[in-house]
Protein: GCN5-related N-acetyltransferase
Amino acid sequence: MLSLVGEHVSLRALEPEDLDFLYELENNPEIWEISGTVTPYSKHVLKLYLDNAYRDIYDVKQLRLCICNQDDLAIGFIDLFDFDPKNGRAGVGIVVLDKGDRNKGIGSEALQLLCDYAFGTLALHQLYANVMEGNDASIHLFKKMGFKEVGLKKDWIFSEGGYKNEILFQKINA
Structure:
């Protein structure tokens, strides 16, 4: 896949060299709540994942791209998941690992590149995102990028001894 290049970030396919970054991100307990992970991943398992990352979105129904800064260093991931070409939709997930890289427009630019790819190249009709209530940065990001709040899933995520609501956002390609 050719890199999707913006002014400050680019999106590219996963490479074997991303193993250490993927290991750090996937084993960060602060991210587990949004990723649905409850246990650490071994480097071996993540290497197997990277070995299969070349598989086509039409086959595996998901696509993970690396968000890179201007120096081509991996700073996060952006995903399409639950890819449904028949109904023209997919879910979107995004994470920027280092808190120092957040709130600088990286997420907005990466999400715009992904939307352009999903709507242009994949010809999707809509994208959606699930955001936990209280995740103000993600709520702001998706609203800023034209996603509309369309639903609330009550008591959807069990975390920290209690249940949290999840907001459903949707963006329809007009």
Observations:
- The mean pLDDT is 90.
- The chain has one domain: 4-172.
